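A note from the maintainers: we've had questions about how concatenated examples are separated. There is no special marker in the raw files; a new sequence line simply starts the next protein. For clarity in this README we add a label.
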Amino acid sequence: MTAIALVGDQGQVYSARVRARPKDAATARPFLKWAGGKRALAPLLTSLFPPLGDRTYREPFLGGGAMFFHLAPKKAVLSDALEDLITTYEVIKESPTKLLARLALFEKTHSEATYYETRKRFNIERGAAPEDRAAWFIYLNRTCYNGLFRTNQSGEFNVPFGRYVNPRIADAPRVHAASKTLEKVTLRHADFAESMDLAKKGDFIYLDPPYVPISATSSFAAYDGGFRMRDQEALARLFSTLDKRGCLLALSNSDTPEVRKLYARFDLTEIDAPRSISANGALRGTAREVLVRNRACLDAARG
């Protein structure tokens, strides 16, 4: 256990102890790069979460899955609005060997020309076999600029080639470890509202949506046309609905006046988070976030 100082929503400073990763947790790690991923913050955030035990863990903005892999819950329902992302998780869960065979070919043929040809196929061949879609998704993710997933207004993936030296594409140990961890997980392609239709009292739900921009230039066009302020407002309403249902809730977002207003009646804890996605390396550092928790989550976390 490691003690870390935190600042509460009223400016109070208190100490939290970072809970160690369970000894029996799988050694799986995220297999995708993901903007806003929580790998670096997972130990700290986990110290503010309730012990999972036999609770069902739900995560409706799955992304790279860093929090899920860190927690390694016994029961989980994972979902995302990005269909190809969920397809990729399903293929890793069910067919890791077939996927790795395809990725191994990319390791042998990787080049800028291969990248753009694969990006073209990914955008055109929507009905390709799941194993192909998953292989293209991972290859593009591991070799594109900054590991972003971004689409244009036509829904086409448009991130340019990233100039990496010998990128790791066919990572067999990581893929097999992820497959093992996903064995008993339920995966759903659904938006955040639909994915919560079966959430029940006592479930622990971690929400990590696209953040409210901290400036006019800090946002980029994400998948599904972006996550706009009306979506943030709908999510806040869903948070209140799930709170009334008796779910244990934690949500990450940027520390902005808009976020503080949306979640004013809940507990907000300030967190300094590493910022790794920026076109200008000099601007990478830390950014202030908030973790929003409802009373049920606070009470369970305090034991």
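[label: protein 2]
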Amino acid sequence: MKIAHFSVVALPFMLLAACGGQAPQSVADQQAQLCTDLARFNTSVATLKSMSPSSTVSDFRGARDEVKTNFEQVKLTAQNVKNAKVAELETAYQDLDSTIQNIPETATLQQAMDSVSGQVAAVEAARAQMDADLNCP
């Protein structure tokens, strides 16, 4: 009898633990997470922008992949923030990504960097606007 009673009492707690047990984030927490993700995205864009003649094509591709991963996280987090205006950032990112994909294999790293500089600037401007709209620190 005691085992059955224990099971009925413990079941909700076990289910909660099995489902992760996380309480829904507050609006402020979700916004703070988006600001954190935007900062991480900004860092990855800065890394891409800082490629130098001594960088390798592998470095460039790694930086590009990091930008993509961080942008995907921004988009995912932004879905939970009501006033997040991610469309402009997404357009700027897509332009950057498209430009990178269209860089010929024969291009030097300097040529690749020169070809994406305008798109990097557009991404930075869109990210800065999003930071300002969200009042990110």
